[in-house]
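Ops channel
N.P.: pipeline sanity check, posting one input/output pair.
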């Protein structure tokens, strides 16, 4: 009995992966084994990058809050400690936006925290 091979499915799988390789340079875009490796590596980098993006945004927010707090004679750690003690439920993203784009609102938060 002859061996049964599903060429339709395997061709479709290769075709989908080669679509992902569109735009790559050199043999990465048209040679199956090279393209497959490049796509797999690219997907790994994409996964890692989604985690790194969260880290980099958090550090940016911390930098902005620190700059805003230092205008009022406080360090970042002192400010965040007082914010947490006073029960203000604003996260770092919102505080950084206030410090950057709405300084009067950030000053109100600082005044509330210092009381």
């Amino acid at each position: 009995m002859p061996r049964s091979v599903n060429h339709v499915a395997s061709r479709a799988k290769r075709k989908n992966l080669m679509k992902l390789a569109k735009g790559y340079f050199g043999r990465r875009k048209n040679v199956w084994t090279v393209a497959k490796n490049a796509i797999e590596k690219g997907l790994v980098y994409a996964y890692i990058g989604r985690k790194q993006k969260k880290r980099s945004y958090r550090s940016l927010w911390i930098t902005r809050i620190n700059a805003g707090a230092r205008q009022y004679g406080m360090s970042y750690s002192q400010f965040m400690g007082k914010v947490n003690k006073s029960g203000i439920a604003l996260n770092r993203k919102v505080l950084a936006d206030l410090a950057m784009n709405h300084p009067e609102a950030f000053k109100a938060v600082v005044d509330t925290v210092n009381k």
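N.P.: looks fine end to end. Helices lie at 7-20, 32-70, 76-86, 92-101, 103-114.
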